[in-house]
């Protein structure tokens, strides 16, 4: 079929297999051009098919030569529907590392469930013995609790009072005002249940109990802090409460893993265009202004540069540098004073008429479409393309 982007609001309901594979290839090329990392040998990435999880897997496999197990929730093509981007990304990853000598396994399903945890642990035990790094990079709107069966939904809302600011429709370039009402207590609770640390801890406990976690293992999950302008909607809102919970969980896990020489971290990453971040009000406008400023200062990074820096300069450096709260900061360049001062200045002025000059609207759009394999270099989007791409190394 001819595969073109079909957007509905802030999601794209189609994905292009060759375009996704090309995007993954570019990430692999980047890592190949960097210094090798003396890092982990066997890595589990939970949420491995897109965004930061995918980039973590690529850095582990290509940069450190590690065997990887990827757990993700994506769908294959069916009838006239294409597969989801994460499916094609992972198939592209597999095709491109198949000759490299590292082992790779994929588990598709709900990471929050006991069933997927058990399948993953059985696979690790039979194929790799143990893992020495666990990356937790799940971003989901929903979670069904494996014990109570209750389904929680996360919301992105401020807490205590309504919040108004500018927001961007990146398809049209329109900058408008948005007001988001405050979350109820129940919504805060549910968001923490989805995006907080409980599931991460359940994974680590289950791996440890089964003997699938090596002594001295490291685990890392991802968080975001960001500037003042997004605090009400992000860091001090519902999602921020979930991130506080995730960060608390890291301290708890670090304490319990340290007995066997292990470590648990939260890494605070840079704001980037991913499927999750494009759904947050206000944030896409901030990201487009940030991209302009960081590109002008030659500081721009995407997921792959961020994750390479996380592995090479933090997790597997001689010493892992953390801030006063114990957090790894690879958002250091985003949060630099000169960067934030310039973004702030532009933020006050940005409107629909000057967005192209003051922000990187085109960069935002391109990256959004590239998430789904569109606008990739060297791909013929008019060509008849087979949407049915089998998943190599799919288990069980
Ligand atoms: P993403 O949407 O690109 O990736 C999410 C991954 O989770 C995908 O692989 C998806 O398949 C998987 N997933 C979702 N639900 C699942 C389920 N039930 N079972 C198994 N897998 C499931 O998201 P992202 O932006 O890369 O976010 C990853 C983490 O990084 C999140 O914790 C996020 O808060 C954090 N982060 C993101 C940004 C940003 O700007 N995008 C910045 C800093 C930190």
Strand proportion, as a percent range, falls in 15-25%
The named CATH superfamily: NAD(P)-binding Rossmann-like Domain
Roughly how many Å is the radius of gyration?
20 Å
Q: Looking across the biggest beta sheet, what order are the strands in?
A: 13-12-11-6-3-4-5-14
Order of helices and strands: EEHEHEHEHEEEEEHHEHHEHHEHHHE
| Shape summary | globular
Instruction: Look up the CATH topology.
Output: Rossmann fold
Note the total helix count: 13
Average residue-wise pLDDT: 97
Spans where pLDDT lies below 50 across 5 or more residues: none
CATH architectural designation: 3-Layer(aba) Sandwich
- Based on helices, strands and strand pairing, what is the structural class? alpha/beta
Oligomer: single chain
- The proportion of residues forming helix, as a percent range, comes to 40-55%
By DSSP, the count of extended strands is 14
Number of domains: 1
Unique bound compounds: nicotinamide-adenine-dinucleotide
So what's the CATH class?
Alpha Beta
Structure characteristics:
396 residues; alpha/beta; Rossmann fold; 13 helices; binds nicotinamide-adenine-dinucleotide
Secondary-structure topology with pairs:
Blueprint lengths: L6 E2 L2 E2 L4 H16 L9 E5 L4 H13 L3 E6 L12 H13 L6 E5 L5 H15 L2 E6 L5 E3 L6 E3 L9 E7 L4 E7 L4 H11 L2 H12 L3 E11 L4 H4 L6 H21 L4 E6 L14 H14 L6 H13 L12 E2 L7 H13 L5 H4 L2 H10 L23 E2 L1
Parallel strand pairs: 3-4, 3-6, 4-5, 5-14, 6-11, 11-12, 12-13
Antiparallel strand pairs: 1-2, 7-8, 9-10
Helix pairs in contact: 1-2, 1-3, 2-3, 2-10, 5-8, 6-8, 9-11
The structure holds nicotinamide-adenine-dinucleotide (NAD).
């Amino acid at each position: 079929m001819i595969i073109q982007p079909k957007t509905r609001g802030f999601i794209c309901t189609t994905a292009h297999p060759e375009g996704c594979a090309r995007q993954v290839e570019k990430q692999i090329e980047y890592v190949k051009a960097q210094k090798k990392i003396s890092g982990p040998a066997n890595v589990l990435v939970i949420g491995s098919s897109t965004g930061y999880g995918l980039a973590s897997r690529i850095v582990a496999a290509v940069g450190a030569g590690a065997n990887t197990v990827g757990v993700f929730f994506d769908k294959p093509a069916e009838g006239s529907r294409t597969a989801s981007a994460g499916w094609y990304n992972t198939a592209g990853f597999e095709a491109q590392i198949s000759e490299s000598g590292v082992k790779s396994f994929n588990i598709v399903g709900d990471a929050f469930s006991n069933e997927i945890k058990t399948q993953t642990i059985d696979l690790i035990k039979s194929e790799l013995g143990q893992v020495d790094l666990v990356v937790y990079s799940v971003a989901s709107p929903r979670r069904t609790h494996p014990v109570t069966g209750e389904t929680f939904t996360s919301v992105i809302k401020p807490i205590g009072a309504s919040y108004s600011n500018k927001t961007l429709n990146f398809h049209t370039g329109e900058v408008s005002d948005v007001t988001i009402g405050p979350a109820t207590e129940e919504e805060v609770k549910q968001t923490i249940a989805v995006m907080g640390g409980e599931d991460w801890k359940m994974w680590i406990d289950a791996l440890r109990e089964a003997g699938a976690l090596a002594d001295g293992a490291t685990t890392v999950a991802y968080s975001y802090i960001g500037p003042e302008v997004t605090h009400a909607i992000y860091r001090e809102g519902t999602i921020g409460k979930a991130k506080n919970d995730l960060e608390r969980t890291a301290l708890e896990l670090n304490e319990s893993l340290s007995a066997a020489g292990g470590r648990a971290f939260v890494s605070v990453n840079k704001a980037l265009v991913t499927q999750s971040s494009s759904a947050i009000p206000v944030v896409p406008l901030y990201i487009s202004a940030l991209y302009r400023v960081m590109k002008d200062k030659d500081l721009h990074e995407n997921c792959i540069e961020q994750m390479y820096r996380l592995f090479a300069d933090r997790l597997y450096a001689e010493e892992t540098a953390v801030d006063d709260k114990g957090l790894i900061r690879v958002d250091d360049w985003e949060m630099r004073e000169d960067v934030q001062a310039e973004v702030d200045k532009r933020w006050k002025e940005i409107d629909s008429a000057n967005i192209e000059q003051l922000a990187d609207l085109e960069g935002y759009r391109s990256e959004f479409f590239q998430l789904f394999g569109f606008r990739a270099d060297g791909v013929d989007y008019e060509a008849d393309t087979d949407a049915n791409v089998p998943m190599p190394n799919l288990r069980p």
